[in-house]
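Q: Please design a sequence for this.
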């Protein structure tokens, strides 16, 4: 919460119970002026928001009581006064709960040398769209570019999430309330500016793929930091499998729950042998054969292949973008990396297998369904895992059996959970609702940012001072094992 909001809440919590003694030492007029001043400052500086309506009501009641109070009468607890105190206590519950449930949160400020700009690109393909029912539909998706800027003076700070993503976020987490009730997000400082000038030099290119059914644009804390360190990031929005997409003509496309249901009809039955394989006392090789067979035709395997197609199609555009338009001469096409979170991390890993233009790849807490079980990476690879419980099936221990002929970094952030790599811990700071881990939200994303940056600095920028191992030595919560493949031994 913001400073004046906290002051306002403390006033309506404490003052109703101490107003009479306070008025013996402070003139009523001055006290009212002070309260009105705080309310006006909050309105002007921070702006009003609906989560504070109970607090505003309490403030108005409090000011009315101060005006009407008669100091000559004895301070005796009457029935009506008792009801008034009960009313105050009841109203204090939503006064504190609502602003804490949906706060005007603070994202971590980027630490790199560059301010960050954003630019949107609409990609239309000739690939058949299999998710929609219209047989004539072709695949299209949005790409949001995060880049180092030379100046943000003339730019407009980007609001946190567009309407489509706010609507979809509400539908998923808050039961479909009016999307206008998320207008408080306009007050979040994103540290990102739309369509500001790009630095006149070329930068390594990173492709980022989001989690399945998640907010494609809900990674400000991750992507802003990495872009500020001198990277151009192409943030893909996989249409119909992200929460929401907004196209330049105003069309909004949302997550397709019907397609999801059709794709997962037999998923429990297909995955049953995998779950049982982890419960039985099987050798690694026996379990490996079961998992390998179950992954064939698995809906997630097919989804990761679709997303890999999106990523490769985007990479195919880089040469043209580097020749003309906004990104002209800004892309270092010899230094391309790919990374993602959750299913997007799996798609990033799959892309590193399929496309030799990728020089380094990272998977942030995603299960690597696809072809990796039958092959080996030939580029540096970083795997970051959340701290999953012991009973969680460790599919990746089989997927990553062969590791890489280059460096393979296997890491885990202790006490973290799957959503800790997104902005969710900042948007919903109540751990039980956000399903985040015990790790401090800022510390968890700080470790992730430093680790991902060090990895790409080392393996794309050839900065040998940068070293993921040093990041693991810096933080007790970061466990890491480094495997060195045959090509570097």
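A: Design:
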């Amino acid at each position: 919460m913001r400073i004046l909001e906290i002051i306002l809440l403390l006033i309506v919590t404490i003052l109703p119970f101490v107003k009479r003694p306070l008025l013996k030492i402070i003139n009523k007029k001055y006290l009212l002026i002070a309260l009105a001043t705080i309310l006006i400052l909050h309105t002007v500086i921070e702006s009003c928001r609906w989560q504070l309506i109970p607090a505003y009501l309490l403030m108005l009641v409090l000011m009315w009581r101060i005006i009407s109070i008669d100091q000559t009468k004895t301070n005796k607890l009457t029935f009506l006064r008792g009801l008034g105190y009960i009313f105050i206590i009841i109203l204090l519950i939503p006064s504190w709960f609502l602003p804490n449930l949906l706060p005007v949160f603070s994202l971590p400020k980027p630490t790199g040398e560059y301010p960050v700009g954003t630019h949107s690109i609409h990609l239309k393909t000739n690939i058949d769209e299999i998710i929609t029912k219209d047989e004539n539909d072709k695949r299209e998706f949005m790409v949001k570019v995060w880049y180092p800027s030379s100046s943000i003076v003339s730019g407009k700070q980007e609001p946190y999430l567009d309407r489509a993503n706010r609507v979809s976020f509400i539908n998923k987490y808050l039961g479909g309330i009016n999307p206008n009730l998320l207008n408080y997000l306009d007050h979040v400082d994103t540290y990102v500016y739309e369509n500001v000038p790009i630095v006149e030099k070329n930068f390594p290119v990173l492709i980022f793929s989001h989690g399945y059914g998640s907010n494609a644009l809900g990674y400000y804390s991750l992507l802003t930091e990495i872009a500020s360190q001198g990277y151009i990031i192409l943030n893909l929005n996989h249409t119909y499998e992200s929460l929401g997409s907004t196209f330049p003509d105003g069309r909004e496309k949302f997550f397709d729950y019907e397609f999801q249901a059709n794709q997962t009809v037999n998923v429990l039955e297909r995955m049953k042998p995998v779950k049982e394989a982890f419960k039985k006392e099987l050798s690694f090789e026996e379990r490996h054969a079961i998992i390998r067979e179950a992954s064939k035709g698995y809906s997630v395997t097919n989804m990761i292949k679709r997303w890999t197609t999106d990523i490769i199609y985007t990479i195919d555009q880089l040469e043209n973008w580097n020749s003309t338009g906004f990104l002209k001469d800004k892309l270092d096409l010899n230094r391309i990396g790919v990374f993602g979170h959750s299913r997007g991390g799996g798609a990033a890993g799959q892309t590193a297998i399929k496309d030799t233009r990728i020089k380094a790849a990272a998977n942030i807490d995603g299960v690597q369904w696809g072809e990796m079980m039958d092959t080996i990476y030939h580029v540096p690879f970083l795997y970051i895992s959340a701290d999953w419980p012991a009973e969680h099936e460790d599919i990746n221990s089989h997927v990553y059996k062969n590791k890489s002929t280059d460096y393979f970094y296997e890491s885990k952030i202790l006490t973290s959970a799957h959503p800790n790599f997104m902005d969710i811990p900042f948007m919903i700071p109540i751990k039980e609702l956000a399903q985040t881990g015990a790790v401090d939200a800022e510390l968890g994303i700080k470790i992730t940012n430093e680790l991902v940056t060090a990895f790409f600095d080392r393996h794309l920028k050839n900065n040998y001072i940068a070293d993921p191992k040093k990041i693991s030595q810096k933080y007790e919560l970061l466990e890491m094992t480094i495997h060195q493949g045959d090509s570097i031994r």
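Q: Thanks. Anything notable?
A: Residues 14 and 28 are 17 Å apart (CA to CA). Residues 3-101 form one domain.
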